[in-house]
From TrEMBL, chain A:
Biological source species: Cryptotermes secundus
Catalysed conversion reaction: a 1,2-diacyl-sn-glycero-3-phosphate(in) = a 1,2-diacyl-sn-glycero-3-phosphate(out)
An annotated GO BP: phospholipid translocation
Chain coiled-coil ranges: none
Molecular function terms, GO-annotated: phosphatidic acid transfer activity
PANTHER family per record: TP53-REGULATED INHIBITOR OF APOPTOSIS 1
Protein's recorded name: TP53-regulated inhibitor of apoptosis 1
Gene Ontology CC entries for this record: cytosol; mitochondrial intermembrane space; nucleus
């Protein structure tokens, strides 16, 4: 699925791939250490952040109690 | 506010559904979904908290274009996954144009009690629109205001009538009329009062349609 920013697609793909592997291979088996994908996430996020500002969107943050 | 709920069963295990959840888009039925991005993700305890941003095409009927002039709508999807309990809860809501239409959807994905290899999705949705509610409020406010204005108009009209035709107004509590009637003989006073009452009744009957016109049309 495309990113909101065209130029973020490649970074998104790399992150998504890392995450999906970690998710099924580690997380679902009880490993909650997600550091392995952190570097991919960081650069991908930087790109998306810029795009959301371009799109006049505030960068969305979790609110406490959102998922209670 | 409209509420909606439904339950659906996936003939897949919870683990499969959880994995599939991240790969939902694109699919043959998601042509309206234009983009999907993970904007935050973190582990808290043993649970995975994720926030995704989606943009979808904004399919608005012609009349809706008065309120919404955007071709796309942004949607935030927040989720918490508990792999130990095997529960996934998602909250999806649109951002922007929330006053026009707000849709919040909550889905709980759990292992089916009927079959541990299946997953049940319990969906709830809340649909609200400030415009629709405001529209109703405007009508109620407008009607009430019209009624008050109507009563004031009748009262004011009565006052003008009483000023123009003081004899007719003598039956109403008024110092001038009292002073007038006190100067008259009892017999004539009665006649005057009768005449005044008669005139008032006639005036009231003529005012009848005006009162009626203050009522909303029963369409």
């Amino acid at each position: 699925m495309d990113s909101i920013g065209e130029n973020c697609n490649e970074l998104k793909k790399q992150y998504d791939s890392c995450f999906l592997n970690w998710f099924s291979g580690r997380f679902l088996k009880g490993d909650t250490n997600d550091e392995v994908c952190a570097p991919f996430f960081k650069v991908y996020q930087q790109c998306v952040k810029v795009c959301t500002y371009c799109n006049n969107l505030k960068f969305v943050h979790f609110r406490d109690g959102d998922l209670s | 506010m409209k509420y909606f709920e439904s339950t659906s069963v996936f003939h897949f295990s919870w683990d499969q559904v959880a994995q599939g959840f991240w790969r939902r888009y694109p699919n043959p039925h998601s042509n309206h979904v234009l983009s999907e991005d993970t904007v935050s993700r973190e582990i808290r305890g043993s649970k995975l908290f994720t926030k995704r941003l989606l943009t979808k095409t904004n399919r608005v009927p012609k009349w809706g274009e008065c309120f919404v002039n955007s071709r796309t709508v942004k949607i935030v999807e927040e989720s918490v996954m508990d792999p130990n309990e095997k529960i996934l809860i998602t909250y999806t809501r649109n951002i922007g144009y929330v006053r026009v239409m707000s849709i919040v959807e909550k889905v709980i994905y759990k292992v089916s009690k009927e079959n541990p290899n299946w997953t049940v999705a319990e969906r709830s949705a809340w649909i609200d629109s400030q415009v629709f509610g405001f529209g109703r409020a405007i009508q109620a406010f407008g009607l009430e205001r019209f009624r008050k204005n109507c009563q004031q108009m009748v009262g004011g009209f009565n006052h003008v009538l009483m000023t123009m035709f003081p004899l007719t107004a003598t039956s109403l509590p008024h110092t001038t009329s009292d002073e007038t009637t006190s100067q008259l003989t009892p017999a004539k006073k009665e006649t005057l009062k009768d005449a005044a009452k008669k005139a008032t009744d006639i005036a009231k009957s003529k005012a009848g349609p005006i009162y009626a016109s203050c009522q909303p049309n029963q369409t």
